[in-house]
Amino acid sequence: MRYVYETAAYGPDPIRDLYWSTTVPSVSLPTLNGSHKTDVAVIGAGFTGLSAAYHLGQAGVDVTVMDAQHPMFGATGRNGGFCCLGGGKISNARLDTLYGSDQRQLYRQAEKAAVDLVDQFISDHDLNVDRHSNGETLLAHKPKHAQDFPALQAEIQRDYGVTADILGEQELRQNGLGGAFHGAITTPIGFGLNPQKYASGLLQMARTKGAKIYANTPALRIVPTTSGYDIATPNGTVSCNKFIIATNGYSSEDMFPWMRARFLPVQSSVIVTRPITDQEQTAQGWTSAQMAYDSRFLLHYFRMMPNNRFLFGMRGGLHYTKRSNERIRQKIRHDFAEMFPAWRDVIIDYEWSGLVALNRSETPYVGEIPGYAGGYAGFGYHGNGVAMASYSGALLSDMVLDRIGTRPNPKAFQHIPTQFPLGRFRRYMLTPIYALAQSVDL
Ligand SMILES: Cc1cc2nc3c(=O)[nH]c(=O)nc-3n(C[C@H](O)[C@H](O)[C@H](O)COP(=O)(O)OP(=O)(O)OC[C@H]3O[C@@H](n4cnc5c(N)ncnc54)[C@H](O)[C@@H]3O)c2cc1C
Fold first, then answer.
1. Which is the closest atom of ligand 1 to the Cα of 46?
2. pLDDT digits (tens, 9 = 90+) for 386-420
3. Which atom of ligand 1 is nearest to the CA of 316?
4. What pLDDT is recorded for position 440?
5. pLDDT tens per residue across span 321-380
6. N or C terminus: fewer CB in 10 A for the chain?
7. Terminal CA-CA length for the chain
8. Which of 248, 252, 320, 358 to mutate to test the pocket of ligand 1 (most atoms within 8 A of CB)?
9. Would you say 153 and 166 are in contact if contact means Cβ atoms under 8 Å apart?
10. Cα four-point dihedral sign 256, 260, 262, 263
11. What pLDDT does residue 438 have?
12. Are strands 183-187 and 165-168 parallel, antiparallel or unpaired?
């Protein structure tokens, strides 16, 4: 397989020290051998693929899921667990220009529907996911960012129909949000969860609906046939009528030529501390269960989990090499200590990284693959896929079933992402962007 980053980024190394894996039992799944027939083949067993498989199984479709490694191996099993609005980076102004105000509104409704979908999965299936936080809090890292909050509050009211709560700098500590911040705005949509507990629930739900799920089964090629497609794997073939590509940031350049250069994988890194005592929480002034992020362009995301371990994440490096990893290791510790100085000596028990995917359209792509009737793909959630990838899987199943679903499905999701320049070297586009962002964020 040809990848954008160094091959080690796609192996076990980044998740040697993954906290979530210590919280769920591993599931042993078979490898696909020989020739199989199925209605729909799903490539990739993360939130996108598992949600699609569940919805298709529920509709009585025969579905086969294959993952190159195992379910949850990709970003799904290693994210920060923020089930929140997002999925794209596109601004309201750009949505208005490209698609009109009705479509902009539909787009924002889809973001909210994505969070509602996860909420519904959890309650309908009684999933224990260590849920906490009432919505998501944005913290101003500069005083001028706090000045923008009233305008943002009005936009949130219009887009999502909810009232965001604003706190001034003096009120942060008494609300348990003490740190190097100048104000906060909380949108009461979303919650924190343990992503592997949630994804394990999805996996179980899909299997219960009859989905066949294979591990260590990379799709190598997709070949059109007279009746559909043959998907070649190392030890067999899956003949299907329709297929869904759900490989997001872990997509290779050569498995399916259409995907090549249409997504930009970007690394994100996370640390998790040992449990922080009540006394230490009080010393820092952070006692809140809110999931939060800061107003930097290269933002940090963080939350105190129900067991008092603190999770802190930020962007990763442009390489997966010893040197680059060491630089990120130091940077994440430096930023954590700067923002939460009372915890600078708290031991970090876990640390890992993974790949998210960006699209040039700045929106997720959820749709049919041009020139491949019955071929679909969902990818490009811009680092916010807990809710949106789950939703994308649901939308893709509607499309496969030829159902005009009731879920908001904005035109922006079918905007075919054009290819990034520089081919396999496209990550280097980020060098000047990161440098500029770092200076703006100072
Ligand atoms: C460190 C980190 C923190 C994040 N934090 C958050 C967060 O807090 N909130 C949020 O909303 N989002 C977050 N995200 C993003 C979110 O996790 C992703 O958007 C989401 O998991 C994407 O799901 P997916 O199923 O599309 O892809 P993935 O979960 O990446 O799954 C892709 C799967 O495809 C498989 N695959 C690849 N190639 C093949 C092949 N040829 N054949 C078969 N299988 C293949 C891979 O093995 C992998 O299992 C984070 C991501 C990272 C990396």
1. 25
2. 999 999 999 999 999 999 878 999 999 999 999 99
3. 1
4. 84
5. 999 999 999 999 999 999 999 999 999 999 999 999 999 999 999 999 999 999 999 999
6. C
7. 39
8. 248
9. yes
10. positive
11. 85
12. antiparallel
Using CA atoms, how far apart are residues 32 and 237, in angstroms rounded to an integer?
8
CATH code for the domain defined by 132-192+266-355: 3.30.9.10
CA of 71 from ligand 1 middle (Å) equals 10
- Domain residue ranges of the chain, discontinuous segments joined by +: 7-80+196-265+360-441, 132-192+266-355
Q: Is the pLDDT of residue 220 over 90?
A: yes
Which residue's C-alpha comes closest to atom 25 of ligand 1?
46
Q: How far is C-alpha 64 from the chain's CA centre?
A: 23
- pLDDT, one tens digit per residue, over 162-188 is 999 999 999 999 999 998 899 999 999
| Residue owning the nearest CA to atom 16 of ligand 1 | 385
* Closest-lying ligand 1 atom to the alpha carbon of residue 217: 43
Q: What is the pLDDT of residues 96-138, one digit of tens each?
A: 999 999 999 999 999 999 999 999 999 999 999 999 999 999 9
CA 151 to chain centre: 27
Q: Which fold has domain 7-80+196-265+360-441?
A: FAD/NAD(P)-binding domain (3.50.50)
User: 79, 202, 262, 351: which to mutate for ligand 1, most atoms within 8 A of CB?
Assistant: 79
Instruction: Tell me, letter by letter, the H, E, C secondary structure of 39-76.
Output: EEEEECCCHHHHHHHHHHHHCCCCEEEECCCCCCCCHH
Pocket test for ligand 1, best of 1, 67, 212, 270 (most atoms within 8 A of CB): 67
What three-state secondary structure class fits 266? strand
Nearest CA to ligand 1 atom 15: 383
According to the model, what pLDDT value does residue 329 have? 97
Q: Which two tokens stand for residue 426?
A: 């496209």
Query: What's the length of the chain?
Result: 442
Residue of 381, 396, 413 to test ligand 1 pocket, by largest number of atoms within 8 Å of CB: 381
- Is 116 strand, coil or helix? helix
Task: Identify the CA nearest to 83 among candidates 385, 406, 433.
Answer: 385
Residue type, 189: I
Q: Which protein residues are within 6 Å of ligand 1, measured from CB?
A: 43-49, 66-69, 73-76, 78-82, 84, 218-219, 246-252, 255, 268, 270, 301, 313, 353-356, 381, 383-387, 389
**Nearest in space to 381 (alpha carbons), one of 369, 372, 370, 390:** 390
Q: Whose CA is nearest to atom 48 of ligand 1?
A: 74
